[in-house]
C-alpha cells in the first residue's frame, strides 16, 4: 500500500500543496511526513511537553489542511505551519492562564557551560519562559517581534528585551569562547 | 556583523531539528483524522441533500403544483382539440400534455435536481 505515498514522495512541497488544495489527503500526509518533526520540535523548544506539542502540532496541521488554499507558496510550507502551531500553542497557554506572569517572570540563571558547545535544546533550558518563547517565536517560527508582542500580549519593547537577553544567554551557552556584545539587534519587527 | 552571524547560525540550528523516531506514525495519525473528517463530511452532505430533497418534494405537494399542472394539461388538451379541428395533423400538443405520468416524472426529476444542487452547494460551503 506504499504506492500512493511513493508517488507523492517525489513531488516538491509546492506541488504537494497544490494537490492538497484539491482535497488530496495523501499529498498532505506527505507534507506532514516531511515537516512534522520540525513543527513538533519548535513547539517543544517553546517549552511544550512532548504530548502537548504533538496535540498542538496535529491541530496546526489540520488547520493548515483546512486553509491550504490560502497558502500562496510565498514562503516555505514548514514556516507557515510553524507559525500556525506557535499561535495555537500561545492561545492554549493563554487559555490555561500559563502566560499570566510572563512579563515579570525571572529567567533561570545558569552559568555558561564549561565544557564548550551544547545543543540548542539544552541551551534553551537556561532561558526563562518569556525569553524562550520570544526567541523561539522569532528565530524558530519566523514570527516578527511585532507579531510576537501581539501574540504574547506584551509591549514590543519587552519582547525585544526578552529576545536580546535570550540571545545573550544562548550565545554564551552555545559558544562560550566568543563573548561578542549583542547590542544593536536585528529588528525584524 | 558577529551578531548577525550568530542570528543566522541560530536560525539554522532551529531549522535543523532532527527527524523524530515516530514521524511516520505522527503523519499517519493526521491522515486518519483527515480521512475520518472527510467521511463524516460526506455523510453530512449526503444527509443534508436528502433532507433538502424531501423538503423540496413536500413543498411541491403542499403547493398543489400537480393539481395546477393537471389543470394546465386540461387546458392544453382543449387547445389541442381546437387546433386539431383547424389542422388535423397537429396532434403533438396532446402528445406532450397527455397523462399525469409526465407530471410525476417531471416532479421526480425536479426533486433529484434539487437534492443534487443542495449537495453541491453544501459541499462547496
Average pLDDT value of chain B? 76
CATH superfamily membership of the largest domain in chain A:
RNA polymerase sigma factor, region 2, helix turn helix motif
Structural class of chain B: mainly alpha
Largest interface: A-B, 38 and 28 residues
Q: What proportion strand of chain B?
A: under 5%
**Distance between the first and last residues' Cα of chain A:** 47 Å
Describe the structure.
Helices cover 62% and strands 0% of the residues of chain A. Chain A has 9 helices and no strands. With 189 residues, chain A is mainly α. Chain A has helices spanning 3-9, 13-21, 25-45, 50-66, 77-95, 120-124, 129-140, 145-152, 156-174. The model of chain A is unreliable at 111-117 and 177-189 (pLDDT under 50). The N and C termini of chain A lie far apart (47 Å). Chain A has 2 domains: 1-98, Rna Polymerase Sigma Factor, Chain: A; 101-189, Orthogonal Bundle (Arc Repressor Mutant, subunit A). The relative contact order of chain A is 0.11. Chain B is an all-alpha fold and 125 residues long. Chain B has one domain. In chain B, 85% of the residues lie in helices and 0% in strands. Chain B contains 5 helices and no strands. Chain B has helices spanning 2-15, 23-62, 65-86, 92-97, 101-124. In chain B, α2 (23-62) runs antiparallel to α5 (101-124). The radius of gyration of chain B is 32 Å and the shape is rod-shaped. The two termini of chain B are 52 Å apart. The interface between A and B is medium-sized, with 38 and 28 residues.
